Amino acid sequence: MRWLVGWSSVAARFGTAGAVGAYDDGRTVQPVGSQLLWGDPDPLWAVGDWRPDEIRISTIEGAPTARLAVLGCCGATDEQLRVGLLAARGGALRHLTSWPGGYTAVVQIGRRISVIGDLAGARPVFHTPWAGGTAYATAALPLADLVEAQLDIGHLATLLACPETPEALRDGTPYEGVRRVPPGHALILREGSREITGYEAVASLAVAAPELDPVSAVDGVRDALVDAVRARLTAPRHAPGTLPPDPGPVPGMGPADRRAARGAPVPGIGADLSGGSASGTLALLAAGLPGLPGLPGSLLGPGAEAGERLLAVTFNDLTAHGHEDELERARIIAADPRLHHVVVAGGEEALPYADLGGGPLTDEPAPFLVVAERHRRRLASGSADHFVGGGARQVLDAHPARLADLLMDRRRRHLLRPVAALAKAEGSSGNSLFVPLTVYRAARRLSRTSYRTGLETAADRLPVANRHTPGPGTPLDASLAALAWSRPGPAAHWLTGEALADVSVRLQEAAVRPVSVQRPGEARARAALARYAADHRILEQAAENRSQRLHAPFLDNQVVRAARALPESLRVQPGARGAILRRVLAGAGVHDLPPGWGTPSHATSQATARTGLRAALPELMALFDAPLLADAGLVEARVVRKALRAAADGEPLPLDGLAHLASTELWLRRLVSRRGTCWTGTKAPRRRAVAHGVVPARRSLRA
């Protein structure tokens, strides 16, 4: 895991020797395994296996305390960094978020420190009061170690009850006292005092912003995606570090298979190729842009014929059926001579819930923890720099609540096609005849519901969420549930009444809190993107392979901005994402795409999740025999075990909710069993984030 950390204090001299931080009485403390980027009085460290080219520092001649640190993959030139520093010196922080790539920027102007988060939330910033000032980091766990924080059980309950409701989560984290900077905001520190400020314009609730025409908007997405991919292609190439010795010929295993079994990626650049439109777009763009995706003479074979082609990885789930169309689309795309196609087969060992006992401790819990081993096996066959299509659905697709935005703008005719698609998905039943009217009424109700009323209604309904048995769910049910200011998460069905009641109080408090209210569709879409970005960040940590970097261009600032400029009327059309990416590729010179391009591919995910749950049922029952979640008062172990058995027997329960419960319990156990801290030095914090490794006993979550 890679992160940066620093702090600011009131004192003119906060530490000693310019290399370590200190308390007021001279006790030194510094992060373990760190490299100092700049020293006292406001030090900054980079911690973890950062590559040399991933850390860039720009300064202004004659101004030693005016400097900019950019960590990550940034496509800006040295001159652009210098110009950005000059702009930030005058207060223009948004300028620092306009370069292609995925990175975090930290600016120091005298005693003023500005730490800029991204728009999606994939590269968050955290902060906490410490030693008379404020400490900040790009990971929450190190700050929790620094202040020896306890668990925030109320935040965990809210994360399970309504994960896509930022109004209830606010700026909290699983650790008491450690706060998160919202996406699209920056943390500004002045001699210890802190301020959170937004650098992005917020749309008005009453008047829609002027829309770009569809052609110009799609051209903007194309340019942003091309620049994002090019930023990775033009970065220095990296080969994995020292590898374990090759065991030699193994029956049925080639050199690439043996390398993947040793857990090291291929040198150069690669991409997922799942057969979906997002991963296919990135693979074709990366293979077609100028530059050499691979390294000559790499492990794929000698010379340009193999090493300079993009490595395209397709995962073939041997336990699932019905994804043959995806594999065929991937095979057709991989016929491009610029691609080297590798198919990774996964059996029972790659099912969800496999190897629950292993895996690293991540910064926070996320549902991706139960599928981390599945992703790690796939990514182990990838490249040192690997493109993934994560986030495309949240960035490009229309959230169902955007139908209410269309009604607010009196554009009713644009509802015809999405409503007709929902009616078609319902089949030929008699209920399908009432789908258009049902959806229209729900969208109109949301468009006429104020922010406060919507949250108060959600707060009133949340305490009884565990009294209803969840049904199988249809596309219409999902769309109607999403046409609200807030809705319970799938794990809320198994939380205790006390936990739900306390989360309801949080919603009621949020309803009366003054906020800058956005339009309902736009607000819900941004919340869904922030939730996915946070989960994707945890997946990167949980499925991390040594010497590998995952790149998700759809979560880059410029791509998110370009996608937000897409007209809502274009977004809400069925198959909009596939059509947009088809036009993006056409603008980049790629026209021959396989049949079925852009077809949604989630038919087998539920079946695979149920198969994995059934195979891992004994381990899951043991996990919830005496769960820490029950000790915290969030669930009843008996109820969860009953739900696990029912789901394994085929009952139509929300499997993603059970995955969220299992992931949170797994994360708690890893946290409690952890030893040591992230800090060292004279009298540094000696306790873990959870002092004494004890989850707080059952108590009121309002505290």
Judged by helices, strands and strand pairing, the structural class is alpha+beta
C-alpha Rg (nearest Å): 25 Å
Count of β-strands? 21
Low-confidence stretches: 13-20, 295-307
Q: Could you give the order of strands across the largest sheet?
A: 5-6-1-12-11-13
Look at the structure and give the mean pLDDT. Answer: 86
Largest beta-sheet details: 6 strands, antiparallel
Tell the overall outline: globular
Percent of residues in β-strands: 15-25%
Helix content: 25-40%
- Quote the distance from N terminus to C terminus: 32 Å
Count of individual helical segments: 26
Notes on the structure:
This protein is of the alpha+beta class. The longest helix is centred in the last third of the chain and has 23 residues, at 520-542. It is globular, with a radius of gyration of 25 Å. A hairpin with a 2-residue loop joins strand 7 and strand 8 (63-74). The strands form four sheets. A six-stranded antiparallel beta sheet has the order 5-6-1-12-11-13, covered by helices on one side. The chain has a six-stranded antiparallel beta sheet with strand order 7-8-9-10-14-15. It has a five-stranded parallel beta sheet with strand order 18-17-16-19-20. Helices cover 37% and strands 16% of the residues. Helix 3 (153-161) crosses helix 17 (497-511), helix 7 (277-288) packs parallel to helix 21 and helix 13 crosses helix 14.
